[in-house]
Amino acid sequence: MDSSSADKVLPVSEQDAQEGVSAAWCPVDRMPRRRRNQICIAIMALGAANFLLYTLVYAGLGGDARNGHREVVQQADGSTRAAYYVRGHFLRSLAGREREVSASWWIYSYLHSISVPVTSAAMIISMLVLARPHIMATMRDGFVSGRTFVTALGTVVVLVTVFTVTLFAWDFVAQLGGGPQP
Asked: What is the reported pTM?
């Protein structure tokens, strides 16, 4: 295959051909389908593994730092120290229960809490990329085109994820900034 034929992009459908829309409207269309599918499956496996690890650590610690807090504790000798607490919702009791953990476990737990929305969004987008040809084929004559639906859903997933991660990161920085570090 010469370079001139490699640069040609075939239309998606007759309607798209009339509108001048090419098959490579999305960057993932520019890579071989088999490779794209392997990458999507690997992303979904990593996201599932991250969620499983988060669940195991959450159960082991009895909660996570995102639901817990950090506070400055006055000791008997008058000195202060930072205490780190994780809290689990409904894991140990209906009200949840706090447990003090080391600073390193608290920081790890908080950072892992921040990573879960990111990997979940990556999983959703990977599933959307894998299902996109089917969505576009079945929504061809509907009120909303498949292409519009896929683009809108992907955009909503990205915006919600960015908002959530920003809130979590903001709270994490605020928690770390309150009081003396041990």
From this structure: 0.75
